[in-house]
Amino acid sequence: xxxxxxxxxxxxxxxxxxxxxxxxxxxxxxxxxxxxxxxxxxxxxxxxxxxxxxxxxxxxxxxxxxxxxxxxxxxxxxxxxxxxxxxxxxxxxxxxxxxxxxxxxxxxxxxxxxxxxxxxxxxxxxxxxxxxxxxxxxxxxxxxxxxxxxxxxxxxxxxxxxxxxxxxxxxxxxxxxxxxxxxxxxxxxxxxxxxxxxxxxxxxxxxxxxxxxxxxxxxxxxxxxxxxxxxxxxxxxxxxxxxxxxxxxxxxxxxxxxxxxxxxxxxxxxxxxxxxxxx
Length: 279
Hints:
Elements: E1 4-8, H1 15-21, E2 23-26, E3 29-32, E4 35-38, H2 45-54, E5 60-62, H3 66-76, E6 82-87, H4 95-102, E7 111-116, H5 121-136, H6 141-151, E8 155-160, H7 165-170, E9 187-193, E10 196-203, H8 206-218, E11 222-230, H9 234-244, E12 254-257, H10 260-266, E13 271-278
């Protein structure tokens, strides 16, 4: 039986991408006032960003429940006896902890292993795709776990922001807090390192921010996978894809959207590139 891969919606894997690789995506929850939505299920990305820009009430997020995970584990156990859950960084969310606790409450006898990715967005997404590729090729659960651990240090992300206010409000700003005092007309570049948000650079314009993302990609001696994601600026994502097409075949660039649960904490104008390969 093929190993089944599970992740959460902070991986920013779209339904199309997840479906292609047979990855099950656990939705986190988004709350606008008294209204609760499953990320990517009950609330479209476009509607979320419209509300984020216009609602007076800022949304909050929460992890899937133990019951949510148990239900998914038991459902997948009808198709396989080995399940690998690759989760959002435990430094950002209790999602990984909940995934672990849920293992002992499932009714099935399937073996479930949980890996803390110490990352998020398409950094996590690319790691999950690599595990799913291996699973489809017949790799065992232990082999898939080894592939995840080997790819974690080989997968990197850079994110261009126009404001850090959303990160600050959500308490996930990390070392980027140091940039808050000089944010006027600054487009900061952040990454994720050891599970935390970390500041990389300050750029003076959006064009310079895009140039920084291009230079980051150019620093790799070989690129195995490349993903570009935006929240509400698809034109910028197109510009970035055009610029990177000389480094990586454009038709193989994975294009996706920053999910609502991530958008809650990063805002509507982020642009990122994630790369798996060797620098």
